[in-house]
Amino acid sequence: MSRAAIADGMISARPQIGFGRVWHTRLRPQQHRFVVPTFFLLLPMRTLRANPQAAGVLALNRAGALAFRDADHGAGCGPEQGGALAWLEALLQAQGIDDADGEIWLQCYPRVLGYSFKPVSFWYCHRADGSLRAIVAEVNNTFGERHAYLLDRPRYGQELRADKVFHVSPFCTVQGSYRFEFGRSGADGLQGLRVRIDYHDADGAAVLFTGISGALEPLTARSRRRALWRYPLLSLGVMARILWNALLLWLKKVPFYSKPQAPADAVSRSIPDDHIP
To answer: Beta-carbon neighbour count of residue 84 at 10 Å?
Structure first.
């Protein structure tokens, strides 16, 4: 996707909804796989800050069947304290990134019927010319902890690596690395979205292949109705699947690891291999 294409998408920025699937394949020490249908949001956060009315049918920081709350992200601050976007901008500034001055798109799960659990959300930070400057993967675990992996100078379609420093699954150690790859399709970059996150252990051997993909379309009353009709318990379903698959892994006698202390730094930074001196 070209810079001009993304820039065009910024001009007409409006909330998007993606209908697709999540996949999870464990290779070792026991094989385990599942694929489930899902939906997610892709929100132009700077547009929404400048013009909250652009949220349309999405309940923005208020009760609603399909809603987004700033407090579910970042430092947990509501809009009166600047919200999630202010947290993200402060994070970038603290990391010396001052040229992500274009649109910032947030890929996340919404609140559905008031409930939300967001295992991972992605912030796509663009320059004013539409080029991609950084991606922040905001990860939450079931213990209420949060960590941000900052991927510096990424490109769509390029593999990026980050050391694993944050506990997510009790069936994986906090060692090794993640391999990320992001893709967007369509003339305006708003036709489809795909994220791959693979986990490799400390020896570099693949352990997990995971990801999410979906076809994008504008969030309208019709697409909202379709999402709620198909997935009325989306957020509860995410948590239920986590617990159910944890039980299956336990039954398969996959080793269980106790939760370590959360990392002292709430942000860890990585750059793509071809930028490493």
So the answer is: 27
